[in-house]
Design brief:
Largest sheet of chain A: 6 strands, mixed
Chains: A alpha/beta, B mainly alpha, C mainly alpha
Shape of chain B: globular
Helix content of chain B: over 70%
Distance between the termini of chain B: 57 Å
Shape of chain A: globular
Strand content of chain A: 15-25%
Oligomer: heterotrimer
Number of strands of chain A: 10
Number of domains of chain B: 1
Radius of gyration of chain B: 20 Å
Largest sheet of chain B: none
Structural class of chain B: mainly alpha
Largest interface: B-C, 47 and 45 residues
Helix content of chain A: 25-40%
Number of domains of chain A: 2
Number of helices of chain B: 14
């Protein structure tokens, strides 16, 4: 493989997150290296989605430290995270249902838009030039994901699998450095899963995007990820290459159940 | 005007008692909101409709008890029709759509009420005297109306009755189940549509009581619909799902608006009770969006 | 048969992004503007100008404003009339107190006053949503009307806050006759409609819709919620404010704060529900519908009832109007939540393939 895994770019240290009395995450530490595909696995309710929400600032952990590109923080802020190049998709698709595929993807580029609302109200001139320039970028993403035929369809009318793809497209439109994918293949059939795997690998390969993904399909996880972190009941019980994790007794007991 | 403790209490008590009226209307909102997730803007129009119907039947020569029963039947018909014509076609729509639909419903009910009974103010005489309670006047020099006190008692009884209804009857249990989770309630065989019709009828009953009491105080007139709008800030204070919240919120709004009007109003030209509750609710929202008794909601993504 | 886009290909993104990508639509709109600017002034009577066309245009603008806030940004408001009032009284005071104040800038300044008030009452939208916000905007509705009535300065100390619009002129031409007022209104409304369309098809509009459809996701992709919502409140109130100023100067002439009641706010809300939530065209369709409906009822109800031998008082007629409004709102929400604009779109789609069903 020509891919080179780089330095650690995101380092999470001793993260704990509570909702009232409920502990969602307890003292979790792991890191993500540049250009790698990092999977988070674990049974339902293990805190996987909460982990992603901590990384891009939707939730603020009560304890811990996040080091992103060498910068130490108590927590992230959604706006800072997106400005720093972190994009994500959601477990239950979070597209803008009333808008077309094209408009959804264009929202992905909102941080790169320079004209203000007055220029946009006038349209002719800078706003139009900018609009066309971003449209070109978005069309590249549309080509990449092979969704040309539905670009003007309102996303609410699309089938589930395509919606997932459009959501990936919206994240890609931002040209992210790091992509957080929350169960990108959940509820898909084998064919759709293969497509999605191909897209994820291609994104990682062609654009050099670092990927953190949550996935339940062990086959997929073991195939595409470089390193895997395993959560159970909000605690980290394993971390390493797919092979290491596969043979970790704690992980096996969490998945298969053992008698205590 | 020199500040006197006595006068302050008089205003406070007057405010609390009128707050009971707000509580009554707010109660109707809470019932419907809990059971069907609909924020029923038409509750005020229902109060107006109920009051006008009651007054109209009394004016036609019927005794009070008969008028009460007939007006209640009218509210039952209204409740059932609302469920059938408004709620059922709009099931599973966003809350905001349902809310706007009830604005339309309010207009419709107002139109029906005025076509049926005319738009002029009708007096309602329930036979309760609107005079200061002599005992309080003599011993403490406090001017508290008998009528207000009786109204407050009736409202209190109504709340007690509703609590019993919710806790002890089979329908009440079903209602609470529906309030908790529509789908789960349906899956165990609770007929959602019947429940909705019942809850709208109960809300209609509450509206009738509120309309009678209010109408007896100020006449059955169109302004009732505006007064009823004050139930909205009451709900923001009390929380949309809480019956005790509706009561406490009503008392807070009733008393603070009167106090503000009497002690602060004269400095700015008066009339501030028209907007004071809304601004109070607005400021309150900024501090505690879920209300005093509401449940905190955590967004999941 | 005539409404086909066969053979019309887009070769650039600019062509794909234009207002009316289909040639027949462009011809249609050009004809419509021609009629509005030339045909109508040639043939319409004063009654048509003052009772139908001018209010239609002004309410279209107000509905457009509300549609930006409610239809595009998803923030329900029951205070549109209050923002109109601010615009009317703002423009009045600028013309009254600034010597030589030209009228169009005064309208715009009135709109800016409304925008400022809109931002103020929009602040709660950062914490609350849905009908909670509706209650917040009720606060604006009642507070603004109260303040304009109680503080004499706003109406130059006239009794009960009535203001009488000064005579106005544009570039030296006096705008006195209904036709002149119509043309002034038409120009302003047309320009502002174009600006609104530009806004909603660019990043600003996409951000509004994103916040409307799913605010958490919007935040995660970097759309600043506070700025986006407050901008929606500001732009929306600005449009309502300008509409209010024109209502005072081009439509009513004499107006008091009590004209801008909660009922007017509801009327504007009804316009966008019937016309089409989240559609520029919808604001115009809804306004036309609501302006024409009472006239239509007046014409039809009386003969209908007299046929049955009944006499209809004006009170009954106005109550029938309430019932029809209410019923229509429920009907549209249940059957076609996107209103007349969507029906128009469906008709066009049918026409594209007519006479073949597929």
């Amino acid at each position: 493989m020509a891919r080179e895994i780089g330095e650690v770019i995101l380092d999470l240290r001793n993260i704990s997150l509570r909702f009232g009395g409920v502990k969602a995450l307890t003292d979790i530490s792991f890191d993500v290296r540049d250009h790698e595909i990092r999977a988070i696995i674990g049974p339902n309710g293990a805190g996987k989605s909460s982990m992603l929400n901590v990384i891009n600032g939707v939730y603020r952990p009560q304890e811990g430290e996040i080091i992103f590109h060498g910068e130490h923080r108590r927590d992230m802020d959604t706006h800072e995270a997106s400005a720093a190049g972190i994009a994500r998709t959601f477990q239950n698709i979070a597209l803008f249902k009333g808008m077309s595929v094209l408009d959804n993807l264009m929202t992905g580029r909102n941080l790169k838009i320079k004209t203000n609302f007055l220029q946009q109200a006038l349209w002719w001139g800078p706003a139009q030039r900018e609009e066309i320039e971003h449209r070109k970028k978005v069309e590249e993403v549309i080509d990449f994901l092979e969704i040309e035929h539905i670009r003007k369809t309102p996303v609410g009318r699309l089938p589930y699998g395509l919606q997932k793809r459009v959501e990936l497209g919206r994240a890609l439109a931002a040209e992210p450095k790091m992509l957080l994918l929350d169960e990108p293949m959940a509820g898909m059939n084998v064919e759709e899963k293969q497509d999605m795997c191909r897209f994820v690998l291609d994104v990682n390969d062609q654009f050099g995007t670092t990927i953190v993904l949550i996935e339940h399909d062990m086959g997929v996880v073991m195939d595409i990820s470089d390193r895997v972190v395993v959560l159970d009941y909000g605690k980290k019980i394993g971390d390493g290459t797919p092979d290491e994790v596969k043979n970790n007794p704690e992980v096996i007991s969490a998945y298969l159940g053992t008698q205590h | 005007m020199p500040f006197s403790m006595n006068f302050f209490f008089e205003v406070l008590i007057g405010g609390l008692l009128s707050g009971v009226m707000y509580s009554l209307v707010a109660l109707g909102f809470v019932l419907i909101y809990k059971a069907s997730g609909v924020f029923n803007f038409a509750q005020g129009a229902m109060v107006y409709f109920a009051a006008l119907t009651f007054a109209g039947i009394v004016d036609a020569g019927a005794p009070l008890w008969l008028a009460f029963i007939l007006a209640f039947l009218a509210m039952v018909v209204l409740g059932v029709l609302t469920e059938r014509i408004v709620l059922r076609p709009l099931v599973n729509q966003p809350q905001i759509t349902l809310f706007m639909a009830t604005i339309g419903l309010a207009f419709f009910i107002e139109g029906v009420a005025q076509i049926s009974w005319g738009a002029s103010t009708r007096r309602i005489d329930l036979g309760i005297q609107d005079e200061p309670i002599a005992w309080l006047m003599d011993n403490y020099n406090l001017n508290v109306s008998t009528f207000d006190l009786v109204a407050a008692l009736i409202a209190g009884m109504l709340v007690g009755l509703l609590a019993l209804f919710f806790q002890k009857t089979k329908v009440g249990r079903a209602l609470r189940a529906v309030a908790d989770d529509h789908q789960a309630a349906m899956s165990i065989g609770i007929p959602l549509q019947h429940i909705w019709a019942i809850i709208w009828t109960v809300a209609g009953f509450v509206a009738l009581v509120a309309g009678m009491l209010w109408g007896a105080r100020n006449g059955a007139q169109f302004a009732l619909t505006y007064v009823a709008l004050k139930a909205l800030p009451v709900l923001i204070l009390g929380g949309f799902t809480s019956i005790p919240g509706a009561i406490v919120g009503g008392l807070i709004i009733g008393s603070t608006e009167k106090l503000a009007e009497v002690f602060f109003g004269p400095y700015v030209g008066g009339g501030i009770e028209n907007w004071f509750p809304y601004v109070l609710a607005l400021l309150f929202l900024l501090v505690r969006p879920e209300g005093l008794f509401g449940e905190k909601h955590i967004d999941r993504v | 048969m005539f409404y086909r886009e066969t053979g019309q290909f887009k070769t650039s993104y600019a062509a794909d992004q234009q207002f009316f990508p289909i040639r027949q639509d462009r011809i249609g709109i050009a004809l419509l503007l021609l009629v509005a600017f030339v045909g109508v002034p040639l043939f319409a009577t004063d009654y048509w100008f003052s009772a139908i066309l001018i209010p239609f245009l002004i309410f279209s603008l107000a509905a457009l404003g509300l549609n930006i806030l409610t239809g595009y940004a998803g923030q329900l408001s029951l205070g549109s009339a209050a923002f109109m009032a601010v615009g009317a009284f703002g423009a009045y005071n600028f013309i009254l107190r600034v010597p030589g104040m030209p009228v169009i800038p005064a309208f715009l300044l009135g709109g800016l006053c409304a925008a400022a008030v809109g931002i103020l009452f929009g602040l709660p939208s950062l914490r609350i949503k849905g009908f909670y916000l509706a209650v917040a905007t009720l606060a604006a509705q009642f507070f603004v009307v109260w303040a304009l009535t109680k503080f004499g300065w706003f109406s130059n100390y006239s009794s009960s806050g009535v203001i009488t619009a000064q005579d106005i002129s544009v570039f030296g031409y006096g705008v006195d006759s209904p036709m002149e007022k119509y043309l002034l209104t038409l120009v302003i409304v047309a320009v502002m409609a174009v600006l609104a369309k530009n806004l909603v098809r660019s990043n600003t509009g996409r951000s509004w819709m994103a916040v409307r459809d799913m605010d958490v996701a919007a935040e995660v992709i970097g759309i600043p919620l506070m700025k986006t919502k407050l901008l929606a409140f500001a732009v929306s109130s600005f449009y309502c404010g300008v509409a209010g100023a024109m209502a005072a100067y081009c439509y009513l002439g004499t107006v008091e704060p009590d004209y801008f009641t909660l009922d007017l706010s509801f009327k504007i809300l009804f316009m966008i529900i019937i016309g089409g939530v989240g559609s520029i065209l919808g604001a115009f369709l809804g306004s036309g519908f609501i302006v024409l409906l009472p006239i239509f009822l007046n014409i039809t109800v009386h003969p209908l009832f007299s046929l049955l031998g009944l006499d209809v008082s004006t009170a009954v007629a106005s109550n029938l109007e309430l019932m029809v409004f209410g019923g229509l709102i429920i009907f549209f929400l249940a059957v076609e939540p996107h209103g007349l604009a969507r029906l128009w779109q469906i008709a066009k789609e049918k026409l594209r393939i007519w006479p073949f069903p597929h």
